[in-house]
Amino acid sequence: MKNFLTAIVLVLAVSISAQAQSIVGKWKTIDDSTGKEKSIVEIYEKDGKYYGQVKKLLNPSKPNPKCDKCEGSDKGKPIEGLVIIKGLEKKGDEYTGGKITDPESGKQYKCTVKLNGKDKLDVRGYVGISLMGRTQTWKKAD
Fold first, then answer.
1. What region holds the DUF2147 domain (predicted)?
2. What is the CATH architecture of 22-140?
């Protein structure tokens, strides 16, 4: 009986720890060319898939910029409020199968996201296969 209770406590502890390790939350994006913080993106779960919405631009070059180069329904939408990550699914310790949009170029890429410790997120955008892309490391926002 003592071993059984110990096993239950361990399972609960691992379960709680696993839930704490989630990509859900607010993340600071980093500009590739300057290394400076660029925006706050909130990642959320809806119907078993994960999405990322730009909540705030930290240093916009112009007030209320729009995604003029985006295609489809995102064209002309304000970047603040734009859902740039769409349809990620959790597979093991990665979130994959979704798309990410670069609001500056309007280009859309396949996307894979993976936690890098407790306060960093590796976000990879690529064309074709994952080797043909680049990774940004985002930091957990307070």
1. 25-140
2. Beta Barrel (2.40)
